[in-house]
Amino acid sequence: MKVMSFEKLGLNAKTLQAIAEVGYETPTPIQAQAIPLLLEGRDVIALAQTGSGKTASFILPLLDLLTRGRAKARMPRSLIIEPTRELAAQVEQDFAVYGKHHNFTVALLIGGESFGDQEKKLAKGVDVLIVTPGRLLDMYDRGKILLNDVKMFVIDEADRMLDMGFIPDIERIASLLPPHQTALFSATMPPPIRRLTQQFLKNPEEITISSPTQTATNIEQYIVRGLEKDKRDLLRTLLEKQNLKQAIVFCNRKREVDVVFNFMRKHGFRTGALHGDLTQAMRNETLKAFKEGTIDLLIASDVAARGLDVEDLQAVINFHVPINSEDYIHRIGRTGRAGKLGKAFMFVSPHEEKHLQLIFKTLNKTIEEYHLSQPVTESLEKKAVQPKKSSSSAKHPASKAEARPLPMKPPSSTPEVGFGDDIPAFMRVK
Length: 430
Ligand code: AMP
Prior knowledge:
This protein has helices at about 15-20, 30-40, 55-65, 85-100, 115-125, 135-140, 160-165, 165-175, 190-200, 230-240, 255-265, 280-290, 300-305, 325-330, 355-365, 395-405, and strands at about 45, 80, 105-110, 130, 150-155, 180-185, 205-210, 220-225, 245-250, 270-275, 295-300, 315-320, 340-350, 370. With about 425 residues, it is α/β, with parallel strands linked by helices. The strands form two sheets. It has a seven-stranded parallel β-sheet with strand order 3-4-2-5-6-1-7. It has a seven-stranded parallel β-sheet with strand order 10-11-9-12-13-8-14, sandwiched between helices. Bound molecules: adenosine monophosphate (AMP).
């Protein structure tokens, strides 16, 4: 089979240099298909999951597009819309990597960060604006931003936006834009997203990368059966038995994230928590610590962990069976990235059986059971997550994150939605 090269895609020399420096040798299938179309100015619908290399597939052609023209004050030239703040921050980081030899200005407009700083950046003029929907509309309604110069609009993780109730926001944003090019990425194509594409995209080319019901073959998947009350001990035993260096542990609710976080911390594990009620600063600090390896366990909710890209993550542990079976695919997709091997475990209590059956149905297969008393696979070579003496980690920057008091419970009038302050339009109190 002929291997496609980045040079053949028609990208400019500065972009190719950055790609070479980051060490990518060949484009992933989504990149090979989407980049030439976007460079031609076509609208694109891409059915692709995180882990497919989709972020570069829109950033790289955008870099080319931006070389024509300059940014004016308060008028961004391109708009990338993401469902969560974490994902938006990650796209910003990717942009910095791929765009390092260009001189474009990027601003992040996300809930949970101060309006003042974001306004100042906007006032100077930005080439790329990366946003979550609620904050963009807030800024627009305050008259701090003009959308008449947007040439490219990227809607990322559209199906997730749908789950989070953001579609009316997206429709409003799309209707505020001048004629522009659109790229829409989604792991699945439920009818409301299909309608959105029919309403707003012009003669789009559709690319499908892999079926959303397929999980990557390089992820070993297991279920571990047990009672709900025993799961915390199961987690400790599993980490030790499987010799896991770093893992993300998914819980279904914020409350449960706090409980597991407290338990693991109490037992000396270097642990961080990630959910929608934590301030943006805390979330950023925890993510940074996890990526740098100063914490080993990240206890997270789905909303907060969507799209997280942690290099070389060995394992994902589902502390609960996700209620929405597509979340299972997204959760375990945090491991086994860029072709590496990963492991995914899921704790299943008797009352979660019915959700497990739904996952089997979505995957069209069952998942092997792992009995903690008998190891199934050889231990990974890397050192296991070991409980650390709290005194020894006290000097570490992450220990600040560990030692921080638990997030305050929101006041009872705050809806329990887990989006931080970036909540969908229909839930916002006017
Ligand atoms: P994404 O689907 O955008 O979340 O990307 C998944 C991962 O693949 C990220 O860690 C990227 O750095 C990596 N990646 C993206 N493109 C390539 C490529 N062409 N070759 C190798 N790794 C890549």
